[in-house]
Amino acid sequence: MDKILVVEDDKTVYSGIKKLLELQHYSVVIAQNGVEALEKIDESFSLVIMDIMMPQLDGIETCRRMRERYSVPILFLSAKSEELDKLEGLEVGGDDYMTKPFSNMELISKVKALIRRYRVYDSENANRTNKDESIETDGLKLFTNRNKVEFNDNEIKLTGKEYEILKLLMKNPDRIYTIEMIYEMVWDEAFTYNAKNTVMVHIKNLRNKLIKACGDACIHTEWGRGYRFER
C-alpha cells in the first residue's frame, strides 16, 4: 500500500483529502505544518501533498529541506492568489501543483500519475546492472537505467522530473518537443493550460543546473514550436 504524507494546517481540507485517499486504498499520514512534516518524512512515503501557506514553516522552505535528502514527488496545493508561490515551489523541487478548490477526480488523477512515475524510478534504481546503459555527448552522460546524470564524472543533482525531461530530449537529439508533448510524456497525464508553467519552470531549473555544471544549457528553444536538445 502506497503511503502519502499530507501537509496541511486546515482540518477541513486535510480531513477531506485523507478520506478521499483512503477510499482509494492509500495509507495517509497527516502533518499540520512544515516542522511536523520534516519530523515525519522518511523513505517509506510515495508522495507528499503539501499546502504552501502554513504556520511555523511554509511549504516552500519545507520542500527545499526535503529535497536535501529525499526524491519523493511533491504535489503543492495553493490558492489562486499564490501564483508566484506556486512557481517558486516548482523551482525549489516541487513536481506539480493544484489550485484550490480542486475536484476529487483531479486530485486522484495527479496522485496516481505521480506515484506511477515514482515507482518507475524505484524500479530502475533497484534493478541496476553492472554495465550501466547511458547516453553521452561531449562529457554529459545520462544513465538511462537509473536516475543519474554526470558531466566529466561529476554528478549533476536533478529532480525526478528534470531527469525525465533531459532523458526524453537526449534520446532524440534535434527533435522538437512541444510543451504539451513534454508534459504528457513526462507527467503521464493529459495537458491542461496550467501545466504550461509547470513545464517551463522545470526546464528553466534544468537549464540552470546544466549551465552551472558544464557551461551549456543544452536545451534550446524553438520559438513557437517547443524545445530540443543540442550540445
Determine Rg (CA atoms, Å). 18 Å
Ends apart, CA distance between termini: 42 Å
**What's the β-strand tally?**
11
Question: What characterizes the major β-sheet?
Answer: 5 strands, parallel
Structural class: alpha/beta
Strand order of the largest sheet: 2-1-3-4-5
Name the overall outline.
globular
Identify the CATH class of the largest domain: Alpha Beta
Percentage of β-strand residues: 15-25%
Overall mean confidence score, pLDDT = 89
The count of domains is: 2
Q: State the helicity in percent bands.
A: 40-55%
Number of DSSP helices?
Answer: 8
Architecture of the largest domain in CATH? Answer: 3-Layer(aba) Sandwich
Uncertain spans:
none
CATH topology of the largest domain: Rossmann fold
What's the order of the H and E elements?
EHEHEHEHEHEEEEHHHEE
CATH homologous group name of the largest domain: Response regulator
Structure described in brief:
This protein is α/β, with parallel strands linked by helices and 231 residues long. Helix content is 43%, strand content 20%. The chain folds into 2 domains: 3-118, Response regulator (Rossmann fold), CATH 3.40.50; 134-229, Arc Repressor Mutant, subunit A (Orthogonal Bundle).
